[in-house]
Amino acid sequence: MGICKVKPSGFESVDEFEKWVQASGIRVHPNVCVDESSLGGFGLFFDTKDYEKEQDEIVDLVRIPSSSLYSYESLLEKMAKLRKTDVKSSSILSRILERCPVKSETEIILCYITGFHLIKESGTTLEDPDLQNLLQYLEVLKSTDVLCIPDNFDDHGEESLRTMKLIRTNFEELYQEISSVMKDFESKLPFDLFYQYTQAIRSRVLEIPKEINQDEEDFTTDTTLVPFLDFANHAAKPNSYFDVDRHNGDVILKLDLNEVKEDAFEITICYHLENSVNSFLNCYGFIPYDEENQVFPFSLSPYVNELLNKMKNTTNERYDLISKWMLIDLNVNLIRNNNHVTIDFASSTLPYLLIDGLNHYKEWSQETDDIAQFDQTAEASVEEIIANLQDQEKNNKFVYSEECLGVTYLKEQYVDPSLILEQTGNDNEQSLEKLTALAVELILEASKLKLLQLEQVKADPGIIQHYFQVELQLLTLLLDQNSQKLLEDAMTSLCVSD
Ligand SMILES: C[S@@+](CC[C@H](N)C(=O)[O-])C[C@H]1O[C@@H](n2cnc3c(N)ncnc32)[C@H](O)[C@@H]1O
User: Fold this and answer.
1) C-alpha 45 – ligand 1 centre gap (Å)
2) Does residue 230 have its Cβ closer than 6 Å to ligand 1?
3) Which residue ranges does the chain devote to CATH 2.170.270.10?
4) Whose CA is closest to atom 24 on ligand 1?
5) What is the pLDDT of residues 397-441, one digit of tens each?
6) Which of 292, 366, 423, 438 is in the most buried spot, having the most CB atoms within 10 Å?
7) Looking at domain 14-68+226-278, does it have CATH number 2.170.270.10?
């Protein structure tokens, strides 16, 4: 069997792809091939035809030599080699790297890729075969199907989507920083292509283990692009995994044949253990089609004031600000298991927001005597502390303060979030169950409002639409459930957290 059934995008022909694989020194098992995947784009496949299986077999599927791995360390070595043979090209790389703020390994890899893109654009032919292969790999990154959110993107108040917007902004800043290295930079690498590289790298990098000392078991990991292996798609229960050959640093993709029953199947690896919509979206730019233990962060922020004022018979109380001061996260994780949804209270203190007698103290900034008692080791003046807390109260998810100045109990005393149950006389099982039942009611009422909104959302196509579909299905399932059962599940998850 050839190593490719279809022409992967980024290559002129199957032949060109196979030549690149060979030139990169990548060794592929004869029963492995690249083909289109139902999971999206391309994937790796195994066909047991003409293959004689031995018992309990682990099969080496693909071996990628260390010279074809792209981590920040291996790219540094490649640059050192380039410096000896091609001064002009290496100076392009150096200028980019001088501008690269060392924030993450992914950003460093992106800066190298930017440099190699500019070298390729300049029409230079690199002599080193490893670098020629790298220039060809740029085409794989250019044509990877990725989530590039638009400039004027509407996050519809969703925190996960807002994070993606922030990620885009960070990379816009990096682009501005490095674009000043040459005057025609933007015409050689427009932002849209830079962003494509960014998202392709983020979706394709793997954490490859690296031993700290020879002959010892301790290891760290290097963020690394691993050509060819990066055609393997993700599954929560994968049939394959990768390993490093300790003798030469090659990466080997291994298949556990015991994990598969079919004669022909897609080879999968696990990118991330937890099936969290947030993590997948923000790290890899997609949401797996997997409804087992799927964790979705449902944001109550847009509804909390309206609903809680109604439920608690209060007027214009700022429950959103109370939650910020008390460090109560208004994103609750909903956990889907096929048609069953539970609310994860194990990691949530939402029931505390339902305690009677909590008030947002609007005049907290006038309590200068109390603020003057704060630990002064940071040597900030009272005015500076107030300005900082006001900024947090307005813009941040939480307000981190020595004293919870912004919330009083019965308008008499500041609350102590860590001892709130004791302080308010709710430190018994009955009260906790009552508060949790109210929290469940709040979530259900918010779900109804969100569902009404979701019907109106005209999301951008693709992954963002998928995000809202996942949310719609989850909330519909949640509302179909018996609220008594939800409370029982909630109480169980609270016990787990104890
Ligand atoms: C490392 S690449 C895998 C190869 C990729 N399918 C291609 O065509 O080059 C990761 C990308 O594959 C897709 N992908 C991988 N596993 C997936 C899954 N379980 N569900 C949906 N998409 C998946 C996503 O688009 C992701 O950004």
Assistant:
1) 14
2) yes
3) 14-68+226-278
4) 286
5) 999 998 999 999 998 899 999 999 999 999 999 999 999 999 999
6) 438
7) yes
